[in-house]
Design a protein that fits this description.
The structure is a homodimer of 305-residue chains. The first copy, chain A, has 305 residues and is an alpha+beta fold. Chain A is 31% helix and 27% strand.
Chain lengths: 305, 305
Amino acid sequence: MRSEFEFIQNIKDRHQLKVIGDDCAVIPLDSQSDQLFTVDLLIENIDFRLAWTTPTLLGHKALAVSLSDIAAMGGTPKYAMLSIGIPEKLWKTSFLDEFYEGWHTLASEFDVELIGGDISRAPSELTIDSIVVGEAPRGRAIRRSGANPGDSIFVTGKLGGAALGLLLLENGEKLGGGSGDPLQMAIAKQLKPMPQITFGKLLLQNELASALIDLSDGLSSDLTHVCGASDVGAIVDESKLPIANGATLEMALGGGEDFELLFTSPLLEIKGATKIGTINERSQGLQLLTSDGPRPLHAEGFRHF
Amino acid sequence: MRSEFEFIQNIKDRHQLKVIGDDCAVIPLDSQSDQLFTVDLLIENIDFRLAWTTPTLLGHKALAVSLSDIAAMGGTPKYAMLSIGIPEKLWKTSFLDEFYEGWHTLASEFDVELIGGDISRAPSELTIDSIVVGEAPRGRAIRRSGANPGDSIFVTGKLGGAALGLLLLENGEKLGGGSGDPLQMAIAKQLKPMPQITFGKLLLQNELASALIDLSDGLSSDLTHVCGASDVGAIVDESKLPIANGATLEMALGGGEDFELLFTSPLLEIKGATKIGTINERSQGLQLLTSDGPRPLHAEGFRHF
């Protein structure tokens, strides 16, 4: 679900589409509001493994990734649709009930209403398409393109936890017990991400952010998106990165799916977020300030092909 | 993509959802308009076979099935999104370009704008999720639930052609040449259905229809939906059915995917449509009037499980 930007950019380039870009499509709704649209496709053995998660957690995550796209523009989620391609062996179990329970628990938290969906038998992999429609005050959805040289760069939460969790799962660790255990916290971060809807709305309502994106592809990759859209460069201070307990610098920089928010702001300090660097001129590119001085920072997010 | 009603009905029953039902979800947009939402999931080897079609035709059909849902409420399509799970072997070809070409040609015809999408690698089957957003004047989208005893039942076009086309493809026939050939016309009906947007809008604008649905599951099945939602019975006159050239009565009654419109009206005659029967009381059930008199008509549409 992570390399749509190339495909979309490709279609956009060839067909002069105007509205594609950012985490959501932004469509004027009325004089007061814009409507936000986002869709995320999750395919078994590509985006998730049934052996590593539970149907309930998968239902949660399927909605969470789309809510995170709404959060990434400071929007408020309203409606959702859900398409599910399901292998016959799962259809015969309580899978769908449990999946929907996890989906619905998260939806209730943000007053998201399920308005439709489709279901089909699938010959092989379980496939989920999660669609969310949100709203933002007219013209005020926070884009990727608004960062200016001199702006501070902030992130919410800790980075790299989801990548650590994935590595643990790949190495046979299981989700279970011990909520204080950092390894269990990392696995929970991977399997049950919390979309930062509330913080995104706070940024929008108080006009705190010049640019905003969610950390779905990884810090280096998502910051590259912001810099590209804003036509700026950036320097990230390694010593300032809020690295999740047990995670490495590489996980914090390159690991995807933390679903925290990355934003820029003319302010130097914002409560609830960590300043990790500064936006500078395009010509300076993307840099990481290490104890040995600055070095180039390359986008290292997950790609499908 | 055809048995979503059971799943959706199931979720609806357990969670008291209000807006699910009909061919689209209907959500108030403003004082003038409602918004219509629909989604259709198409999975390789369940809903289509690559050997029987072309990428361009598949792109057309992926959009056509969703546009048909908008037509089934008399709505006007506005925006679309597209999720594609694609096997690596197809990604390396011109498949996506050709697919999008077919999609885009149909979209242009109805001024539908692509506003977003997602793409993922798929380990096995090509998977397409087609999302369309439309509009209708406030409170005037034509529901399945408005049929009244005494109303006439009408269909557009001819019935059973898509089912005949499917049978021909299953038996090794290929799409090609001879546009006047009835067998080729049936194959084209299966592979390149035309959504009845224009006729649906005409029904809405002139307030001609009391209930409306598209023929996606097959006449007997879709008429059962209308009768259930409207709490009425119906009798269909076999001798009046506009059966496609080469198709059988069974194909016309039970075959899906013609994507014509089925509607009821207090009027006795409507230009561009064929009267095939009459709505009556619920207690009379669903009947087929044959040359031997009436017999029960059972829903025989395609089910996934």
